[in-house]
Amino acid sequence: MAVVSQSRVVQDSRIMMDSASGRGSILGEKRGGVAMADDTACNGNSRPRKHKNEGFGDFGKYMAEKKRKLSLQFQAEASDGVRSMMEDAKFHLTSDGKPPSNMDVANAAVVHRDLTGLFDGISIFVDGFTIPSHQELRELMLKHGGRFENYFSCDVVTHIICSTLPDSKIRDHRSFSRGLPVVKPSWIVDSISCGRVLPVSSYVHERIARDHPNQSTLLRFLDSTKEDSNNCLLKKDVHMKNQSHNVHNPLASSHTSSSKKDIEHSPVSKKGLICDSKISSAHGSGLESPSEYARSHCTLGDANFVQNYFKNSRLHFIGTWRTRYQNRFGTGRENQDQQHDGYSTSDNMFRTIMHVDMDCFFVSVAVRNRPELVGKPLAVCHSDKTKGTAEISSSNYTARAFGHVLMNCSNTVYSYSVSIIVWFCVCPHRDVCFVGVKSGMFIRDAKALCPDLEVVPYDFEGYEQVADEFYDILHKHCKRVQAVSCDEAYVDVTGVEDPDFLASQIRKEINDLTKCTASVGIAGNLLMARIATKKAKPDGQFRIHPNQVEDFLSHMSIEDLPGVGWSLQERLNRKGIYDCKQLQAIPKEILQGDFGVKTGDMLWCYARGIDNRQVQNYQERKSIGAEVNWGVRFNSPSDAHHFLTSLCEEVSGRLQEAFLIGRTLTLKIKKRKEGAREPEKFMGCGSCDNLSKSITLGCATNDAQVMLRVTKQIFASFHLDIHNIRGMGLQVTKLEQNVSSVYTQGQQHQKVLEACLQFSPKGNLGKKLLDDESVHRSNATALSEIQDRDNLLHINHQHAIPSDKKQKSFKEKKRVESFGKIRKGPFSGLKQPFMSKEKERQNVSSLPHYSELDQSVLQSLPPEIIAELDNAYSGAVIQNLTSFKTHVTGKRFEEQESFPSIPLQNILSNTCNEKEDHFGVQSNLIQSLDPKQSVGRTQTSSFRDGNGEPDLSSLSLSQVDIATLEELPYDVREDILRSLKTHKSNALELVTEVVENSNESDKQELLLSGGSSGLLHCHQEAQLVGLWDGDPPKWIELSKNLQGAGAAFLQHISKAFYAHEHPESLSCILRDAMHLREFLMPMHLDQAWEESMSFRCCLELFKQYLLSKISDDLEEVYIILHTVKRLATEAIFWKRIVQILVPFIQESVKDIYGGGFSVMTTGYDEI
Amino acid sequence: MEEITSLLAEFLEVAITLVLSVRGIYPPEVFERRRYLNVPVQWARHPELREYINSAVTSAMPWIQKRIVEKLAVVILDKSNMPLEKFTFQLQVHQEHSGNFTRTEIEYALRAFFLKLSVAQPYLEPLPPETSWEIVIFSKELPGDAEGKGHFWVPAEAKLWDQPPVITPIKSMSSKPLNVQLFIEHPSM
């Protein structure tokens, strides 16, 4: 019998007895069975958890007590000291014969405090043997207002004092000092003699200072805050914040600058000052104002950190540049199809590709207007601190050459400090290893290599300007330009007679226009062109003819291959592969086996100079995101929250800029590695673990609020200590075009329709409608915008597409694209500012001849534009289209067939382009009540021709086909009813009727019975049976036709249902849907909403689902009930559902399990 | 089928032990941390306790397999032998589907039970001192001449609460060959 429970287990006599005696009775269980109980063995009585270890636990208490007492003693001694001094003062004064006034005493106290307060806020811990001794130091601290700790605790201690540092402590000095300054005792003595707290930097232990250059800055900071009488001590993060202010703030505000400079640059004081003046001069000519530069560099200090971060980030500039480029040069999707038909892909062999790359772009742009710097070693960096850890983003060739000599022999390299070796390529098989000033290098290392290095700041406006000019030139010369980044592009010059000449011409133009140089590589494919450029640099051009490729490659080292980064290089080197020739010898299968299919394939091809990629004008974006990995430090959850908010706003802004919405949100977090110390790079992320999680939403979004909610949820699920977060990034994938999004444009629908209804009385036919000024203008705006974008009509005319299917999809795309582009055109365009008439005419006058227009493209254009074109071509368009359409009936959407008729319909059909079946139905909108006539679109024409004047306001309700009306989306229907002014009261009745009766099959029921509610009710009931039958379940079909309260919810979850493909459970869907909670909330409730079909459908949906789950998935039932209850706190709709659902389910559970859920019995019953 | 039965038996043994550990029926020293299905669980160190649970489960298995028994409960009793809590396992074995399943899938689902059970503490109120416990099975018919160790079982008295109990679901899984549910029953206040 082990351990403690011995007696308990054994003493229970029932172990033996019960099994023999067979005591018990038959259970009257519900199922009528017999219950058996086994009481044998181990009826261990539990006992309360024992409280042991009390004796040992006392040690901690003892220590705490001891510390407390010691500090009390210390304080007492200190105050005694003060008192005695004050008494001295009193005595002294009285001995002069004057009675001591209160004033005098106070003065004495002040003087005294000046002295005693010297070390106010400083708390030291003395480690090991010191001179002066432990005891003496204690006395000193006592006298001068400091604190002295007998036991080390990083919460209290601010400085560690020691004379010698043993190796063991050095080795792990971080854990020893916990990041606190370790200073020599002379610091205290000297400080006292000077009467102020001296900077600790010169008292820091050399060994620590040398090993950790950052340490010294940290210490310097401590003093400076001290001098600024910033006595609030001193969480480490506060250190960081202020430190960042110091180090990055060479132009600090006047009251602190002098002292800080002294401190900061004490070792290299002169040089530091020079640096400062350099920067200030650079800024004088540069763009950023000094005050902007002097901002805080950490999430803690700066409320707008994220915005500022991206404003000043080079990577951000490069990242967002593409959106800008696409917007500017209009390389949208439509060009993609077009670009392929000009060239067939089979003549791959004889392509000529040019790779144009600006030479050290960031440097040359930044100094293009400063001829005095030509020929000097230059680097671009956001900071010019000689000892700084800012990374160089670009350096010119003069600078790059530096360091070669220095490093020529490998012996010298190792004598250099560790941080440099990182930048030094270790190539064991070569004798010569070198390192120059490179991008990515810390500035202090660069300065070490090249002391004369001039550092210039970023010039983002310049970059944009030069990049635009650069691409202008490329586009001028060639149609097929693939932008790689802002300074680098591939150009397909197949067919050009003399590419060399073209290259030199382009280079010359670039040089003339931008004052920057570019290099060009020419070859048969993208890969070789890129390699050629390497050879061409700087400021040159190089051509690799197809027959030279093999020769050229065989001499090339693998690291020069694009796509071979250092890790891949390392792996190849380990296999003894150093150049392309060796690589060529390896069969493809082995490469694929070793490096994965894709990489292996790439290596195999690249080693042979094979590259089948096309020059693509447009590359679809797969993801949009933003990431901040620098300067991220949090103190409290609210900091993190604020940061996430800005991050979401940033990403949302980028999505909006690109007209995209996304479904999957991924939050990436960099978490400080366990035991990692403060990174070498100032405010950098250091050594981190990368965490990431993503959530896929039911529907795509670009709304910052929605994103924030989801992001916060992901963030919370990490359960991180916020102090350990070093970087965060948010990425949105599964992108869609932001056109058909119901949620973002739901409101617009209504406006559009209202607007149309208002216009329709004036202009009955499409052409007449154009007379309405504002519509006209908006169309014109739309049209002209399209024309601005590379004359769409021309382009489409040129391209011939083989299959009908492709054509269709292409048109869809185009339509989407044009809507996205001119989002404000057709929808809210009615409110757009007027365009000048002149411009409008210009656009119209430059139209191509009608015969040049592609009929099929015309077909797919939005009706407004058609109408506008029709106007421009004086009626020819519509006339032709109507004849054209007869050829294509059946295949096309009805939308297309009916569009030349009435703009109202077309606009309607646009608003609900999600549901195809609406297209047809709308044409039946207004007609007589005869059910037989409700089918067939002949009504359209009868409406148009027969009624002549479709003045809605003059229509009576009897003319409205209720069946059709109820098919319409809720908001559209509301609009129509509202506009039927004459029968307002009837209209209201109708609405309720329509709401109740919202399925196709109901129609006839209604008509036959004349609205007899009894029959109707039966019918509804029949519909609600078996909502979960079938695949997909019946409710999905049903929900499509529903309107009113709850319909939005049903439609939303039915979308989610499809998005999940095979959802495991309703709770999954609900859980995901909770992110978009507002969509689950019915916006407006009619009077009789509780009787409405949609509400009942919702209710039945849950009821039936839960009933089906009760017998074998209580957990699911429980979760669903809880979820719905949570929703119930926010909407009456859900409250009602809970009120009905919960008791019902409780009863059912009781029936099966003999008892109900716990929490369900309380709380919501009394709503 | 054998595989399912043995897996289920193992699962029940571990789960019952875990219930005892979570509820603190025995002092913590009685248990040691082990890994089962790659999840940390508490396992009894005392051989007799292990033996008791093992024999109860294995002897009930034939009935569970035949679906004569679909409910197995760990009942915690107070001094006066009134039940305080019931941890009820509802088990449904579908022999007709026993062929087509992968063991890993079921293991995966069962693992969740241990995880949920280990964190069930907040649902539960502290037990009064001097509790005992028993394993109860509910059968639909008289098991009759059960093979093997069936003779261990004795008919139990109906220890019912005055009010219908309150149910807190812990975890449910349903798969083709096997449905398992675990929920806690308390007397309602």
Describe the fold and architecture:
The complex is a heterodimer of chains A (1167) and B (189). Chain A is α/β, with parallel strands linked by helices. In chain A, the strands form four sheets. A five-stranded mixed sheet of chain A has the order 10-11-6-12-13. In chain A, strands 3-2-4-5 form a four-stranded parallel sheet. In chain A, strands 14-17-15-16 form a four-stranded antiparallel sheet. In chain A, strand 12, helix 25 (526-536) and strand 13 form a beta-alpha-beta unit. In chain A, helix 10 (213-227) packs antiparallel against helix 12 and helix 43 (903-911) packs antiparallel against helix 44. The longest helix of chain A has 42 residues, at 54-95. Chain A starts with 5 loop residues before the first helix and ends in a 10-residue tail after the last strand. In chain B, helix 1 (2-23) packs across helix 2 and helix 1 (2-23) runs parallel beside helix 3. In chain B, a hairpin with a 5-residue loop joins strand 3 and strand 4. Chain B has helices at 2-23, 47-66, 103-118, and strands at 31-36, 39-44, 69-77, 83-93, 132-139, 154-155, 166-174, 178-186. By secondary structure, chain B is α+β, with helices and mostly antiparallel strands. Chain B has three helices and eight strands, in the order H-E-E-H-E-E-H-E-E-E-E. The longest helix of chain B is centred in the first third of the chain and has 22 residues, at 2-23. Chain B is globular, with a radius of gyration of 16 Å. Chain B starts with a helix and ends with a strand. In chain B, strands 5-3-4-8-7 form a five-stranded antiparallel sheet. Strand 18 of chain A pairs parallel with strand 7 of chain B, so a sheet runs across the interface. Chain B: Residues 2-184 form the HORMA domain. Chain B: This is HORMA domain-containing protein.
The strand count of chain A comes to 18
Largest interface: A-B, 54 and 59 residues
Structural class of chain A comes to alpha/beta
The unreliable regions of chain B are none
| Element pattern of chain B in H and E | HEEHEEHEEEE
